[in-house]
Structure formats: C-alpha cells, structure tokens
Amino acid sequence: MQYRKLGKTGFEVSEIGFGAWGIGGGWWKGADDEAAIQSLNLAIDQGVNFIDTALGYENSENLVGKVIRSRPEKIYVSSKVPPKNYVFPAVLGSDIQEAYPKEWIIACTEKSLKQLGLECLDVQLMHVYVNSWAESDEWREAARLLKEQGKIKAFGASINFPYNSQDDGISAMESGDFEVCEVVYNIFQQEPNQDILPAAQKHHVGIIARCPLDEGALTGKIGPDTVFPEGSFLETYFKDERKKVAYEKCQALKWLVDEGYAGSIAEGALRFCLSHEAVSTVIVGMRNPKWVPVNTAVSDQGPLPKEAIERLKMHAFDHNWWL
C-alpha cells in the first residue's frame, strides 16, 4: 500500500480507502455485518488507514467504530452530515438554514462520534453543498466550534453531482474553509479534471475520489441479464437499458487489459483515479472480503501511463443514473 497526503491536513492516508456506504444496509440490500467486519479488518491488515462513512449510512458508523476501536493502528475516519431537509443533491438557491444550520451540524457530528465511539473525527463533510452557502457563516462557525472543542480535525464537503459551476466548492477551497472535498471521479465521469481537481491542487485541498467503479459499471461484471437484490438502489441505478449500456461501455475498455495496461478493467479504473496527483485517496466499496486483497493491491501497481490516460478521455460519457 502506498500513501499520500490528504491536502493541507498533513494526514498520510492510504491510496485505497474503504468506502463504507454499502456495509450499512439501507439502499444496499444484502449487507452482512459479519462480512463487513471481516472486510474492514482485512483492509486494515492490507494497509488501508482511511475509512469513509456517513451519519446517513444507517449501521455503517457503528460497524466502522467497532472495528477501529479494536485495532491498534491509527485509522483516519471521515464522516458526513446529512442536510437537515434530506434533499440530495442540494438545490441551487436553497436556504442554508433549511439544510445546514449551525446547531444541526454540531448535533449530527456529536451523534456520529457517539455511534463511532470516538472523541474526534479526522474529517467531517457536509454531504451536499452549493456555492451560495459560502456567503453564510453558519457552517463556518459550526466547523470552528467543533475544531475548538476537539471534535473534528478537518472540514469540507462532498460535492454535488452532477457537477455545476454553482456547486463545485471551489470558492470555499480558495478561501481556505474547505480542507477536504469528496468528488465523484472515474473513467466514465471525468468532469472534475476540468476545474475541481486543478483547484484542489492549487489550494492544497485533499481529494477523496468516490464511485471509482461507477457503482459496479466499471467492474465488467454487470451485463444485460444481471439481477440485483430486490429493493437495492442498484435496481434503479441500472434500470431499463442502463445495464446494457454499462456492459457495452465496459467492453469498449478491454484494450486496457488486452494491451497490458492493467490486469482487469476494475484495476485500470482504480489506477485511473490514482493517476491524478490531486487525488489523495480512492474509496472503494468492499462488502465482500474476497475483493479486499484485489482492490488494495492496486495501489502498488502505480498510475496508468500517460498514453493510456489520454486514450481514456474518449471513454467519458455524461450520465446521471442516480435519477
């Protein structure tokens, strides 16, 4: 496992992090607590020292806390505050008082700490964000108080998707208020290359790359006949013709393997994310323990060659399948 600095925080975090959304149940059906605990422990054994969770991920924080409290290693934990109105993504022009009043941010942080069984969060993020909120001191004051009280070390936001220049978080990066941001970034969704990643580099903001496998579309394991657990959000994400589209888009990437750039398309997808210097860590969902050694080993493979990155630009396609 290789490590990178998480922006100005100075934290040395593993290039492959553990994305803990799927282990909490809820939208992800078929979650198994024992398998999740096994996966978390195995990931830490493999050198993972960064775990991303959220208050809204149902049982996720409890599971994460149970594991890290049992380990001697320093594990960096990032969580997220859901908007009070539970509107995902945040609507442009919405009132911050409806989403993130100061008291809400503080109360949610304290609840996360209780569920995790920790005294301090390494990173706390707003789960949604729009740039107009930069004009408000609500969240700044909350972040300042939480830092003073020793309840968080760094603050930032998970950037809305699909991206828009009015909710890209760049103004908060420029002002120094955001130390860390989380963004959707993968071979199919390369939009952060345009401005978010360069801005993060310029202002030393740590970047957490999420959805590196596009909810499984970049694993090569989803085809037209794939059946998902009943009630899983994947049924919606890959509804109608989307499974067929995902399959065809993934098949078009076979040159990565055929020409020796990567051992699998999934490996190539993770290395694509790590090829950008602005990315500090790539969080991968690893509910099944068998994928932990496979995913964590990618870090030691290094970035993809520049010629491969250049060719991958043609594989980007604009899709918002969360709708």
| Distance separating the two termini | 35 Å
Structural class: alpha/beta
Spans of at least 5 consecutive residues with low confidence: none
Helix proportion range: 25-40%
What is the fold named in CATH at topology level? TIM Barrel
Order of helices and strands: EEEHEHEHHEHEHEHEHHHHEHH
Largest sheet: 8 strands, parallel, barrel
**In order across it, which strands form the biggest sheet?**
3-4-5-6-7-8-9-10
For this structure, what is the CATH homologous superfamily? Answer: NADP-dependent oxidoreductase domain
Q: What does the average pLDDT come to?
A: 96
Please compute the radius of gyration using only Cα atoms.
19 Å
Instruction: Identify the CATH architecture.
Output: Alpha-Beta Barrel
> Oligomer, anyone?
single chain
Describe this structure in words.
The chain has 323 residues and is α/β, with parallel strands linked by helices. It has one domain (3-315): TIM Barrel (Alpha-Beta Barrel). Helix content is 33%, strand content 15%. The chain has 13 helices and ten strands. It has helices at 33-45, 60-68, 96-99, 102-116, 138-148, 170-174, 196-202, 233-237, 242-251, 255-258, 265-274, 292-296, 306-312, and strands at 3-5, 12-14, 16-19, 50-52, 76-81, 121-126, 152-158, 180-184, 206-210, 279-285. α6 (170-174) links the parallel β7 and β8 (180-184). α1 crosses α2 and α4 (102-116) packs parallel to α5. The chain is globular, with a radius of gyration of 19 Å.
